Amino acid sequence: MTAGLGNLWRDSAAEHLSAPQFQGNRNTDLAIIGGGFTGLSAALHAAEQGAEVTLLEAETIGHGGSGRNVGLVNAGLWLPPDDVCKTLGNQAGEHLNSVLATAPDLVFDLIEHHAIACEPVRAGTLHLAHAPGGMEQLQMRLTQTQARGAPVRLLDAQETAARLGTARFHGALHDSRAGTIQPLAYARGLARAATEQGARLHEQSPVTSAERRGGQWLISTRGGKLQARRLLIATNAYHQPVAHIRLPSVPVVQYFQLATTPLGDNLAGDILAGGEGAWDTGLVMTSIRRDRAGRVILGGMGGNARPHADWARRKLTQLFPRLKGAGIEHAWAGRIAMTHDHLPRIQRMGPGAYAIYGYSGRGIGPGTVFGKAVAEALLQDSEAGLPVPAVEAHHERFAALRSLYYETGARLVHLAAARP
């Protein structure tokens, strides 16, 4: 069982931050609801442009998906680039593909510029073929991404085994643009950088209502009222009800992770020795990475239920038999907002207001890019630079049922796989 084990990222983050609860009344240029990658990137970039920024977080900075995810800084989306174009149209699709191809550049540039202590490693990622059919998927992605000039390479089973430290996979797609970070430390580092630029951040400040009144946005919390010229809602899978604000229900996928104790090189030195992060082509995906202390971190779809924990322990020793009996120090889960087409949305919420949601498992790079772009759109009153066209409304059919479907499917797969 994993009862009592906590979130590794909270226990190991080198960046520390504490922000006061919002109290009183204030006027601001830009109000941001949500203290994850998107909201923090928006706060930082808006403050750099001289705007007065106030960010309200219901819990603590990085409490949601930004402080719980795998920490892979990927280029692009989960959706292959040709499918992005089929869904959005060629012009808008290629624009999004191009913008997100350089998302890791923005992330790692921010880390360097603001000296964010988040264990950055830019050694690429490995998309692993879990079965022979997975190699066909990777070949398709290789063709599509190389056609757009991406530095990707298809590895055979032998080279994959040498990089990963196990021969259980049939090959891999290596993307040298990508890398890994300590995600919560990155979020806190963005928050620190934003405050250094003059943004005002508040934790434990859930928004109770937000409405347009007299040409301004009036935002209420338990501690006071904020009047803002512009508004960004960046709560994604952790959105809480806010009076006068209607966001669509988006299906939620739970993702579980388990981390070993720090392991020495004699036991785990050949596991992702190059520093890559990895995930596979399985329908119920598995991710593998290490942190700077030498922990092996394994994840998969599913919440904090017993079947997922049992599966993760068994999967770890299936991949790396020498880790049988290794101590498990942390276990945690988070939520992913998954749109039906795996594309994020920028939704207009009224004059001078947007909501961003639906990264579908690719939050670090896209969240950083989208936050910056929407901040610029709000300050410049122009949508020309948005990564995707803004929409007036969005609807996800059977959102609650699909969330249940994802969790049930993952639980059944993991129950079967966890049997001795």
From TrEMBL:
InterPro entries: FAD-dep_OxRdtase, FAD/NAD-bd_sf. Keywords: Oxidoreductase. This is Glycine/D-amino acid oxidase. SUPFAM superfamilies: FAD/NAD(P)-binding domain. One of its GO terms (molecular function) is oxidoreductase activity. GO terms for cellular component: cytoplasm. It comes from Roseovarius azorensis. It comes from the Bacteria. Residues 29-376 form the FAD dependent oxidoreductase domain. Pfam families: DAO.
